[in-house]
Specification:
By secondary structure, the chain is α/β, with parallel strands linked by helices. It folds into two domains: 4-73 and 123-255 and 343-367, Aldolase class I (TIM Barrel), CATH 3.20.20.70; 83-121 and 266-324, no CATH class. The chain is 41% helix and 13% strand. It has helices at 4-9, 22-30, 44-57, 83-88, 92-104, 125-129, 131-137, 154-162, 174-182, 204-215, 230-238, 260-268, 291-297, 309-324, 347-367, and strands at residues 15-19, 34-38, 63-67, 142-147, 166-171, 187-191, 197-198, 221-224, 243-246, 274-277, 285-288. Strands 1-2-3-4-5-6-8-9 form an eight-stranded parallel β-barrel, surrounded by six helices. Strands 7-11-10 form a three-stranded antiparallel beta sheet, with no helix packed on it. Strand 10 (274-277) and strand 11 form a beta hairpin. Helix 3 (44-57) runs parallel beside helix 7. The two termini are 30 Å apart.
């Protein structure tokens, strides 16, 4: 089960696994795949701690880091507003609407002495393109730097190459893929709309061959969006990809740190229980359908705010919901593969099951080519 991208990164299996949990990243790489740490939630100082931990527990295997450097967001192009300044940009109407939603489901305000550090999706995106990049480049085990929203800055691509690190980017259209290659991106992740998180509206089956043909044979493409089994991985390779980019399936492995209520909702969901919505970050992102996403679709709801302002509202909601252990509002970015995620298993078991099913599927397809007497 080797494709050129395996030799490029020194891995056994072309299974790339995105996760916000360092334990999952290390476990996938140890099992022969390639773990990628989603770093948006971390300050550069916290990211240093996470990467140092991975270095110590990954047994010398390679891994990657996924940053978020969007083309457009509030504050881009000037001095990054402080957290207080960003919060002040949110209209009172939106704060009131958030309180109304939470009140309807019995979620109380946070106590005055609540000391958990505020986290907001998309906050500190300038740090991702500057200090977080430098932190990442200082770790020798990192072999891939990934940007999840639009083309990474050209200077970031050049800095990574100076350190011998390849750069990948997620795309949702052929045009986006061509732009990425023009600025020097090495690996393209063709992510169909079935995927969790920020995603476009073209299906994986259509997108992958379009991107493969557009970028040519010298640029490896990874298939993403709804991939969580060996059969689906085989389909991605048949479409011309050199490997699979996976994410959602790692939310329910034993090593994952997915919040309890959100994980329960994921385990109980079927493939129709996701929605592509701006209610989480201000940009279209596939996530669990919850009372939060439904509220922002309701008649009379305020228009969602741009990134990172909507993420601040979501972060405020999520802290209160988590503290109250409320399931109705507990969401998470997840793709349509969620319908197959119905039990908790060790990470290595998931990796090996994908590999075994891929082998069985490929052998079955090869059997169809047998000559008949």
């Amino acid at each position: 089960m080797r494709t050129p991208v395996c030799d490029q990164f020194g891995i056994e299996f072309p299974i790339f696994a995105f996760s916000h949990c360092r334990d999952v990243v290390a476990a996938v790489s140890r099992a022969g795949g390639f773990g990628v740490l989603g770093a948006l939630a971390f300050t550069p100082e916290e990211l240093e701690i996470e990467l140092a931990w991975i270095d110590e527990h990954i047994e010398g295997r390679p891994y990657g880091v996924d940053l978020v450097m969007p083309a457009n967001y509030v504050g881009k192009g000037g001095a990054q507003p402080s957290a207080d300044e960003l919060r002040a940009m949110i209209p009172q109407e939106h704060w009131d609407y958030t309180d109304k939603i939470l009140s309807e489901y019995g979620v109380p305000p946070l106590p005055d002495d609540y000391d958990e550090r505020a986290r907001a999706a998309g906050l500190g995106v300038d740090d991702q393109a500057t200090r977080a990049v430098e932190t990442t480049l200082n770790h020798g085990g990192v072999k891939l730097l990934v940007n999840a929203l639009g083309p990474p800055p050209k200077e970031v691509v050049d800095r990574a190459h100076e350190h011998g690190i390849l750069v990948a980017a997620l795309v949702g259209s052929k045009r986006h893929a061509e732009k990425q290659v023009e600025i020097g991106v090495d690996v393209i992740v063709a992510q169909g709309t079935e995927a969790g998180g920020h995603t476009g509206d073209i299906s994986t089956m259509v997108l992958v061959p379009e991107v493969v043909d557009a970028v040519g044979p010298d640029v490896p493409v990874l298939a993403a969006g709804g991939i969580g089994t060996g059969r689906q991985m085989a389909a991605g390779l048949a479409l011309g990809a050199q490997g699979a980019w996976t994410g959602s399936i790692w939310l329910t492995v034993a090593e994952a740190d997915t919040p309890g209520e959100a994980q329960q909702n994921i385990l109980a969901a079927d493939s129709r229980d996701t929605v592509r919505s701006r209610a989480m970050t201000g940009k279209p992102a596939r996530q669990l359908r919850t009372k939060w996403t439904e509220a922002w679709e309701a008649d009379g709801a305020p228009k969602t705010l741009p990134m990172p302002l909507q993420g601040i509202l979501y972060g405020e909601m999520a802290r209160r919901v988590t503290r109250a252990h409320n399931r109705e509002l507990s969401g998470f970015p997840v793709g349509q593969i969620v319908g197959r995620m119905n039990k908790i298993r060790p990470t290595h078991e998931v990796v090996f099951e994908i590999v075994e099913e891929w082998i069985a599927t490929t052998e079955k397809l090869c059997g169809l080519l047998d000559s008949r007497d």
